[in-house]
Amino acid sequence: MAETISKESATKDPGRRPPAALGKADSSDQITRRSFFSWLSIGWLAFVAATGGFFTMMLRFFFPNVLFEPVQTFRAGYPDDYTVGEVDLRWKNKYGVWIVRNDAGIYALSTTCTHLGCTPNWLSSEQKFKCPCHGSGFFKTGINFEGPAPRPLERFKIVLADNGQIIVDKTRKFQQEKGQWNDPEAFLKV
Amino acid sequence: MLDKFRLDKFRGTQLYKSIFRGGGVPKSRRQRMMVVLNSVFLHLHPVRLPKHAVKLKFTWCMGGLSFFIFLILTISGILLMFYYRPTIEYAYTDIIDLAEQVPFGIMREVHRWGAHAMVITVWLHMFRVFMTGSYKPPREFNWAIGVILLLLTLLLSFTGYLLPWDQLAIWAITVGSNMARATPFLGHEGPGAGLLAIGDINFITMGSDVRFALIGGRFMGEAALLRFYVLHCIGLPFIIMIFMAVHFWRIRKDGGISTPV
Predict the structure, then answer these.
(1) pLDDT digits (tens, 9 = 90+) for A160-189
(2) Total-model pTM
(3) Domains in chain B, please, with CATH?
(4) Residue A28 lies in a domain
């Protein structure tokens, strides 16, 4: 292309200097071959950086800072509110959590059946959680013993706040089959 | 009355010639070919078709049908967008409204059944291409494009599935998006998720993994509905149209539709 232009200009205007000679001009604001390539590299680097920056922004854009979700952490009162040896149903509908207290302490069980996600019922006369969908049964500890459920119920993080109240955090879950029930946050010693 | 004289006069105007380059009725083979090549829409299509290319017995016309159904889905989908609001409060009732109150509410059924039909025709198209060996060189690249198109069709089907926001939809997407938890490195329950960590601080958690980006939160909710809506109505159709254009164009470039041996 450049050749064509130079040919044309050479034929049309023979007195004009050919473009190749421009590089040799001693005027400082002339673009030399060397400075052309350094400006080209800077230009490309800037373009790549800007594009990369924009794609990073796009990626980050998909991770919101504020979530409009149901609260996952809640205060569950004081340890004395719970009777030893009983399954407490007061948070079942609101948060999907059973609070169980035994001699050693308190744990928070998920009310989601590990088979297909239904909500089992606590049958106090039989001392077991029984899922109405497919008949999975769990002991008071959450361990599965009958029906199709493949693994025990999950436990949630349970800790004491500074004022002595119980805090249950549903974003942290502990699975028995992974040995996570031994985690200090999976069980509140009282 | 548009007699021949006036028609010829109109063909001579700048308006006509600016739209239809070459002007006039194509008379030679070459002119007919140029009509196709000069149109952005027609040029995706082969200039000439061999006789066997329209034999239903060989092609089943499944590729053409898939595209036809895609057009139906695009038009009916745009119509549905005039009534449907992608929020938890309105999504389900708007679908009921569309089905029961909106004039020609059958548009919603057209869209849903069309979606099922497109998955079937795309699958049958792939089956036909496989059975006739049409994936072999020089068409291997177009086969790869076709696999991407199949994936995009399934993703469109998947994202559209959530929009009625009924129990079926919510639980289907709950289960479907839970699979993303197990993505290697990017899902918080997947293999290698623990590697991206500094000390005790894990970077891939329930609140920062690929599932989180997909459904816009840690749980199925308002954000997931809106994200799937945008993907279903804008994002995925935009991408699939680019791949479809390449797919159709490559048929021509790869030597036309394959021939029975």
Answers:
(1) 999 999 999 998 889 999 999 999 999 999
(2) 0.77
(3) 58-253 (1.20.810.10)
(4) no
